[in-house]
Amino acid sequence: MNTSKAEEYIDFNLRHAWHKISRMYNQKAAAHGMTMSIGFILLIVDKEGTPSTQLGPRMGMEPTSLSRTLRTMETKGLIYRKIDEDDKRKVLIFLTEQGVEIRREVKKVVKEFNERLLQSIPKSKLKVFFEVMEKIDDSVEEELTKASKFL
């Protein structure tokens, strides 16, 4: 019987690394009364406004969690919502001045971490990493497509 250790699975390693990164970002965010989710939303929202329906899929968040996070961000004065003038069914999310300011700080933290990674990993290995991640993304997309055909 072939038994494998969890550490030998690709998805285990992805989840483990992401969990640690998530803990690190949440720890940094908590020092400012925020969460990693709030930080990522601040990074995703663009100047022209971002439809709220686009945020969930891009963040990998369930609608209820996203709604709760957006409400918190609104209460903290980081975002505001506006109905799209062309399509009244669409709600756009915009950053307030305070949201833009905090976005700068979030961007700085993310850039610093990425710079440390880029300095410690040779370019040739990074190239392979991104190729592997693209292959994983393609494989997952293929699995999702297959699964949706059965629904």
Give descriptors for this structure.
151 residues; mainly alpha; Arc Repressor Mutant, subunit A; 2 domains; 3-stranded antiparallel beta sheet; 6 helices; 68% helix; 8% strand
What does this structure look like?
With 151 residues, the chain is mainly α. The chain contains six helices and three strands; from the N terminus they run H-H-E-H-H-E-E-H-H. It folds into two domains: 8-120, Winged helix-like DNA-binding domain superfamily/Winged helix DNA-binding domain (Arc Repressor Mutant, subunit A); 122-151. It has helices at residues 10-30, 36-44, 52-59, 63-75, 97-120, 123-149, and strands at 50-51, 79-83, 91-95. A three-stranded antiparallel beta sheet has the order 1-3-2. The protein starts with 9 loop residues before the first helix and ends with a helix. The model has no long low-confidence stretch (mean pLDDT 91).
